[in-house]
Write a structure and sequence with these properties.
The protein is α+β, with helices and mostly antiparallel strands. Helices cover 25% and strands 28% of the residues. A hairpin with a 6-residue loop joins β32 and β33.
């Protein structure tokens, strides 16, 4: 909210510098965005009076003006504004003046005629266009007759530009600070000043009419209306507001409209009570209903937009016709215009949740809805209405109907909170006395009763955010000063900080992958329904968002690979051919019939192009299945599982290449898969040949691991045997290695495949594979006889298992 320093001084004598006050507000109450003074940076901008205006002889839109500026002789200014005329008090920037954006005004000739300054619009001296009266948006500003301006005097004080405006960012719990009264109470408490409230009484009334004969009010939704009152002003003349009121509204960031609308905005700023004015003659039924309309009913708001209502939108209706969205915005059909003679003013409190839902659904966050959402002081609903009626009668030369309609009576309730001095000092760490606490609470305008160091605090309705002792403790701390509270370091036994086992494993995994040339990526946890179902390691139901921001982020992911492929596609589209990424994060599985998904840690990688770029000593080699397998194998080997890791060819993943994909087993449990992305899927993602892996990191973290992470190197020599086998194409290397290990004794240390051949001189359906078997004894030197015996056992086992031939 924009808090006027001059307006604050009407409540009490305030002699604090505005920036010092803003700093105190920020430390005590709410955040302050900025403190501004509209005249800063401006220079030599004064009031002028147009003595004569005649058309420019060489232009069809310019005028030559003789302007009185408080000097001996008038000055000549060439002006192109369409609304310039003789006999106007205007804003003049003299030669050498500085206007908005530090633009300097100089004497010049315009189409052959001398111009010694500039007649300005409000926008040209720094006013935001949204606060400029509509009649002056496209022309110069003309001071009204009641402004009291004099030629030659600076314009700043007349237009409120010498006022300091403190722009506060009000938190949701401090809705009371959305009013000048609320800010005055707060600042009065901070500086221990008694404020004077200038609330006008309703005096200008016509006692001849009975309001019940003029208007009826019926509340059809009593649970959603906390207060509802209406008053009527007759024989109103719609005209511009008094100049002081227009300036006050513009300073607060509100555009002046006319006397009636400006009064409702003024009361809203002063009391924090939004009001709405209806043209009585535009009400056909003369019976106001507060309730609901059918879903998708069309309604045109004051901004001219047609809106489709929800069945849950609380509406103000004239009979069955909608005339306003309760707490949000009025309707165009009953707006106040130049032909209005009788005005109905509404003062109410609506359910804040209803107002917020309506404003959010229709994207219509008005100043009124902002206040209704955060709360309204029920104690001033009637006072605000009475002052609005009185001002409307005064400014519109009319009279208010004596009585008002109260359909729902405001119910201001004070709250009693009890707490004791010991508790206060214990929580705040202070040594406050009973008198000090009492004085702080009285500065807040709370009523206090003290009995044996126990305080019974009565909180007025204007502070509806206070309910419990903790709220009172916060108020005491704020006014006493957070910077005055003692600060102490926490006491207790210290412990050495360290990572958990899971954190150590995850960091180790990241280190290995980064050392292997992969960069960490972070993808969205939300994706499309189609991508969420790709590369799934287990069956799962989708987990959809009720209100997704976009269709691209509507479902919780069930894999990491699809997000990495999006990242690969992003880089490839920008001419990055070599991309190697990994991601560690959570996927979300949900079984049918459950509301909450299960979060599972996963680890995935994606590589396209080459991990090694070409250089003077080697060529660039594209990544393949075995290079990816080497990275995964290094990763898993370093974790030192008790059970062995194995890779088994798989065709279960439709998104993967059927001949270049393998399941990764830990013992007899699948913990992941790896391989090439299916070419058709790669085409959908618009990426080249790409290899990926995904692991169940949670299963890896939970798997038992060996304590010893190394084997001593044997000092005894190794003996090797080479063997070439002719075997069926269907038999895999994994099966052969497993058979050799099963048939060998403890001396077989390593099995290395060094040749695979199929083709000429090899029977159809067969292949030739060659292995080097390494034998070693960790405690003794092996003999040829021991090695030959163990080697022959292994070969015989292969012959029986796979019918191999020794070549």
């Amino acid at each position: 909210m924009k808090v006027s320093y001059k307006w604050l001084k009407e409540y009490f004598d305030l002699d604090v510098e505005p920036k010092v006050l803003a700093e105190k507000i920020e430390r005590t109450a709410v955040e302050v965005d900025q403190v501004t003074r509209a005249e800063d940076g401006l220079k030599k901008i004064i009031v002028g009076y147009t003595l004569d205006v005649r058309p420019h002889p060489n232009s069809d839109h310019l005028n030559i003006c003789q302007v009185e500026v408080g000097e001996d002789e008038p000055i000549q200014i060439v002006c192109g504004a369409p609304n310039v005329a003789k006999g106007q008090y205007v804003i003049v920037a003299l030669h050498g003046a500085r206007i908005k954006d530090n633009v300097k005004i100089k004497r010049s000739k315009m189409r052959g005629e001398q111009s010694n300054g500039m007649i300005c619009a409000l926008q040209e001296i720094g006013f935001d266009e949204k606060v400029v009266p509509k009649v002056y948006v496209n022309g110069i500003y003309v001071f009204p007759e009641d402004s009291g301006v004099k030629p030659g005097e600076p314009v700043y004080s007349y237009l409120g530009m010498d006022d300091d405006v403190i722009d506060t960012s009000v938190t949701p719990n401090r809705g009371d600070l959305f009013s000048m009264d609320g800010n005055a109470y707060e600042i009065g408490a901070i500086y221990d000043k008694k404020l004077t409230l200038n609330h006008r009484q309703l005096k200008t009334v016509d006692e001849t009419d009975n309001i019940d004969d003029l208007l009826k009010v019926k509340i059809d939704a009593p649970d959603d209306v906390l207060a509802y009152q209406m008053g009527i002003v007759k024989n109103v003349t719609i005209a511009p507001s008094p100049f002081w009121l227009q300036v006050r509204l513009m300073t607060a960031g509100v555009r002046p409209i006319n006397n009636v609308v400006d009064i409702t905005n003024y009361i809203m700023l002063k009391y924090g009570q939004p009001l709405h004015a209806f043209d009585y003659d535009k009400l056909s039924a003369k019976e106001i209903h507060v309730g609901y309309s059918p879903d998708q009913t069309k309604f045109v708001t004051l901004d001219g937009e047609e809106r489709s209502l929800k069945a849950t939108d609380l509406m103000i209706k004239d009979g069955d016709k909608n005339i306003a969205m309760a707490g949000v915005m009025g309707g165009l059909d009953t707006e106040i215009d130049d032909h209005t003679h009788t005005v109905v003013i509404e003062s109410a409190i609506f359910d804040p949740i209803k107002v917020r839902k309506t404003a959010r659904y229709h994207v219509l966050h008005s100043e009124a809805s902002m206040r209704f959402e955060r709360g309204i002081n029920p104690a001033t609903v009637t006072e605000a209405l009475h002052e609005a009626l009185e001002l409307a009668a005064q400014f519109g030369d009319g009279k208010a109907v004596k009585d008002q309609i109260t359909a729902v009576k405001p119910n201001p309730q004070a709250v009693e909170v009890t707490l004791d001095l010991t508790r206060i000092n214990h929580v705040l760490g202070t040594q406050l006395s009973v008198d000090e606490v009492t004085k702080i609470l009285e500065r807040l305008q709370f009523t206090v009763q003290v009995t044996d160091e126990t305080f019974v605090v009565t909180v007025p309705a204007r502070r509806w955010d206070i309910h419990i002792p903790a709220d009172i403790l916060e108020e005491i701390a704020r006014i006493y000063g957070y910077d005055n509270l003692p600060s102490t370091l926490p006491t207790g036994s210290t412990t050495i900080g360290r990572l958990t086992t899971s954190q150590q494993v995850i960091r180790g995994v990241r280190s290995i992958l980064q050392g292997s040339g992969l960069n960490q990526a972070m993808s969205y946890g939300l994706t499309t329904a189609q991508k969420a179902k790709l590369f799934m390691m287990q069956s799962s139901e989708e987990t959809k968002l009720d209100f997704p921001m976009s269709l691209d982020h509507a479902v919780l992911r069930m894999n990491l690979i699809s997000g990495l492929l999006d990242d690969v596609a992003y880089n490839v589209a920008r001419k990055e051919a070599n991309v190697a990424l990994y991601e560690q994060g959570r996927v979300f599985y949900r079984t049918d019939g459950t509301d909450r998904p299960t979060e599972v840690e996963h680890l995935a990688g994606a590589i396209t192009g080459s991990l090694e770029t070409k250089n003077w000593y080697g060529k660039e080699a594209p990544v393949d299945f075995y290079q990816l397998k080497g990275i995964v194998d290094l990763l898993l080997h370093d974790l030192n599982f008790e059970e062995s890791i194995s890779y088994v060819a798989s065709k279960e993943y439709p998104e993967m290449h059927p001949g270049r994909t393998a399941d990764i087993y830990l013992g007899d449990k699948v913990i992941g898969f790896m391989g090439q992305v299916h070419p058709q899927v790669a085409k959908q993602f618009k990426i080249p040949e790409t290899y990926v892996f995904e692991l169940d990191l949670q299963a890896i973290l939970d798997a038992p691991k060996k304590i010893q992470h190394y084997d001593p190197i044997s000092k005894y020599p190794a003996i090797t045997r080479d063997v070439a086998l002719l075997i069926d194409q269907k038999v895999s290397n994994t099966e052969i290695v497993a058979a050799l290990q099963a048939a060998s004794n403890r001396h077989l240390e390593k099995i290395q495949l060094f040749d695979v051949y199929a083709g000429k001189h090899i029977p159809e359906g067969k292949k030739s594979v060659a292995y080097t078997l390494t034998y070693r004894d960790k405690h003794n030197t092996l003999t040829e006889e021991e090695v030959n015996k163990e080697f022959e056992q292994a070969i015989e086992s292969l012959k029986k298992a796979f019918k191999v031939e020794i070549r």
